[in-house]
Design a protein that fits this description.
The complex is a heterodimer. Chain A is built from 6 helices and 9 strands. Chain A is an alpha+beta fold. Chain A folds into 2 domains: about 80 residues, Phosphorylase Kinase, domain 1, CATH 3.30.200.20; about 120 residues, Transferase(Phosphotransferase) domain 1 (Transferase(Phosphotransferase), domain 1, Orthogonal Bundle). In chain A, the strands form 3 sheets. Chain A has a 5-stranded antiparallel beta sheet, with helices on one face. In chain A, strands 6-9 form a two-stranded antiparallel sheet. The longest helix of chain A is centred in the first third of the chain and has 24 residues. By secondary structure, chain B is α/β, with parallel strands linked by helices. In chain B, the strands form 3 sheets. Chain B has a 5-stranded mixed beta sheet with strand order 3-2-1-4-5, with helices on both faces. A 5-stranded mixed beta sheet of chain B has the order 8-7-6-11-12, with helices on both faces. The mean pLDDT of chain B is about 95. The chains are: A alpha+beta, B alpha/beta.
Chain lengths: ~210, ~325
Amino acid sequence: MRLFYRGAEADIFLGDWAGSPAVFKFRKPLPYRLPELDEEIRGQRTVHEASIIGDARSAGLRVPYLYYVSPRESLIVMQRIEGPRLKSYLQSASENRGVSEEFGRTVGVLHRSGIMHGDLTTSNVIVADGGVHLIDFGLATHSLKVEDHAVDLRLIKETLVGAHSRVSSAVMASFLAGYASVVGEKRVKEVVRKLAEIERRGRYARVE
Amino acid sequence: MKGDLTVLGIESTAHTFSAAVVSQKRGLLCDIRDIYTPPEGSGIHPTEASVHHAAVAGRVVGDAVTQSGVSWVEIDGIAYAMGPGLGPCLRVGAVTARTLASSLGKPLIPVNHAVGHIELGCMLTGAVSPLVLLISGGHTMVVSYSSGMWRILGETLDLTLGQLLDQLGRYVGYASPCGRRIEEAASGSRRYLRLPYTVKGNDVSFSGILTAAKRLIDSGEPFEDVCFSVQETAFATAVEVTERALAFTGNKELMVVGGVAANKRLAEMLGVMVARHSARFFVVPLRYSGDCGAQIAWTGLLAQRSGVSIPVEKGTVRQSWRLDTVELPWRMTK
């Protein structure tokens, strides 16, 4: 087993589970956090993530299969999906419309199924097998609220503008087209309106 | 040209009225401040703060120029905080700056207050293009430089960290800013009371913590324990989103600026986090973490060097001038 990625809250190890390539996601203690608070949050997030990955799969989405879950160890073992992260894909691909639309459709299905991902950065999307796979449901919650879905879209927008500023508007347009094809034009309008409202609500949002 | 550039900067976005003079060659020459203090149990009343600013403006600016050792003739530009901030307070700074610029015939340079915090921080700490945690009464955001602007990677969805601490302090009768007194109270406790821990993606939310903390105070929990728990919970969420942004951008520099950067527990938590990413951690020196003229003067100097200036009649204020809309010509060449 080897360390693949040292994330903000979890370390990802790559190994095998009963002969299949697997990802071991271990939520490590965060030394800056008070131990009693830290343990509670890590256990909660482990259980939560596993159950929501199951729900997303039931909705027909491409997400990793779960192999083993242990809240006490803050450990999830799951299927390893081989492919580039959307982050590196967008940085290298000359054409991204198809993938951006598929990303939008995927998030549309997720939201229509009542799940908010909670951490939809381009690092948490894998492009593989001609489709878009979602990973890292660590901050996901069950919600059909326009507000929560708008928060997901806001993070996508924030990440695109922050890390892919050159292609951000084209990707966002394709994403919204794909998203609309699943949730419908009416719902997209509501979510986008709420997104604008949330941006205004941020401190010193632009009112001029 | 004499090969140097000397700029006078005026800060008046909130409770602080301050003037500073910087020179390109000799650095910061002086930084004079006069801070409005509201009565116990209150926050800043914008109009009262502006009355304070108007009363001290002449003396603060005069003292700054005297202490800097330069003459009025040697000053090349007048920079002021155009925003964001409290309207009445901003206007005092803007009027002062316009008056000086037009009567002395010097260029007028508008500065974004938040950019000022960041640029002064870089100048004082030596950070080059860091991921920045900007935390104060007016801001709680994680920002990163990309293609000509500071981009916001995460921010608060409701209260700022400074507001959370101020509103908690005011609830028990302190006057704003309350950060230092909350920190002192918290240092006397190790008893953690569970509070809502809210991270939404890269964003944080503090309103739930404030409501729960007020309830704990009402139910008779010791104030020290509440302060300890609020700090531990709120700071951990801020450090968590900062860590996410650090991991996401792969930046090897983190800088913390703004009034709340003075909190030792927060700096300690950030230091522990940054060490795990083998990044360098820069904390703005205590004296310059809060609002000051130096941040405006230094950023004004950078701007003027890049050719930024506005005619006096355009010297207005922008109360809601968002950081991620400010162009930074002096960073474009890097």
